[in-house]
Amino acid sequence: MIGRLRGVLVEVGEGDCLIDCGGVGYVVVCGARTLQRLPAPGDEATLHVESQWSQDNGPRLYGFLTRDERRAFTQLLAIQGVGPKAALSVLDVLPPGELAQAVAREDKAAVGRANGVGPKLALRIVTELKDKPIGDGTFSPTAPGVHTEVAPPAPSITGEAVSALLGLGVPEANARRAVDHALMRLGDDADLSAVIRAGLQELGR
Prior knowledge:
The chain is of the alpha+beta class and 205 residues long. The protein is 44% helix and 19% strand. The chain contains nine helices and five strands. It has helices at residues 32-37, 67-77, 84-93, 96-105, 108-111, 119-129, 157-167, 172-186, 192-203; strands spanning 4-12, 16-21, 24-29, 44-54, 58-64. Strands 1-2-3-5-4 form a five-stranded mixed β-barrel. The longest helix has 15 residues, at 172-186. It is globular and about 45 Å long. The relative contact order is 0.10.
């Protein structure tokens, strides 16, 4: 089973990309958020890969930029009614850290923003992911009848920057794209104010 691919990014399509690894071209299905964050064609790219097989489509590779994203994808697939397309849609609107926060808050509406995820499926996702580690967040089970406050993970720079842009009236999809591009330029260690400024610059291009 393929777990990671590193090679030259040949092309990026609407729902997948082609990576050349030593002369072999691999078609990797990715979510929109991952595709937007890939380097330019001709540059080297590394994807963490989850291999799936179905009778209809045969073998397929699903790619992610981080191990956390791949782990969250497999956790979502383990939930009844969640297929690869729905799992990718959830991660498009809620990266692992933000998904962990939504689960901690039992925020079904946040999960339901994903394409193809209705209210019932959103409730099932939140219910089944409760008390499970998602990304960097871990939730401890509570005894029956005992209410325990569980602190959600600290907000991510991505989430806070996107929220700031949303507060300025920027559509969510545009805000996420601008923040992702800003982080690619500045690096993950950039402070929040710098990311917001860079995101606004991206929107102005």
